[in-house]
Write a structure and sequence with these properties.
Length: about 130
């Protein structure tokens, strides 16, 4: 895939994001995220920049070597895409984890410029024993 994706729809860009996330294809992810991405993750501090977002994803998936973000519903309105997701995974010590989430994407010129992630962080912490 080329670094320039401005010819595709916001929905196609978001689908590429999930492909990159689920396959841990960080080169693809770098083409999907705007270099100046604003990331607002649940239960964590905001981050600016695609490099910081990718580093965060890599750290998370270090804790979940088995993982899948399954988008179950897409809602599109112009350049904004809202996605309902079911995350399933397993921790490095074999604990199974499942939770639902909602991600809100703003796409500009074929790249994700803002991403906010929403899920029950207290329930996840309880599942993980934290």
């Amino acid at each position: 895939m080329s670094a320039e994706k401005s010819g595709q729809s916001p929905l196609e860009t978001v689908k590429d994001y999930f492909t990159a996330l689920n396959t841990e294809d960080w080169e693809l992810m770098a083409t999907v995220l705007d270099p100046e991405l604003d990331l607002v993750p649940s239960g964590s501090r905001p981050r600016t920049g695609s490099d910081k977002a990718i580093a965060m994803f890599q750290k998370i998936f270090g804790m979940f070597p088995v993982h899948a973000d399954d988008p179950t519903r897409f809602i599109c309105d112009g350049s904004t895409v809202v996605v309902e997701i079911t995350f399933t995974g397993a921790t490095a010590d074999g604990r199974n984890v499942t939770f639902d989430a909602v991600d809100i994407f703003d796409v500009d010129n074929g790249r994700i410029s803002r991403l906010s992630q929403w899920f029950d962080t207290a329930a996840l912490a309880a599942t993980l024993g934290g």
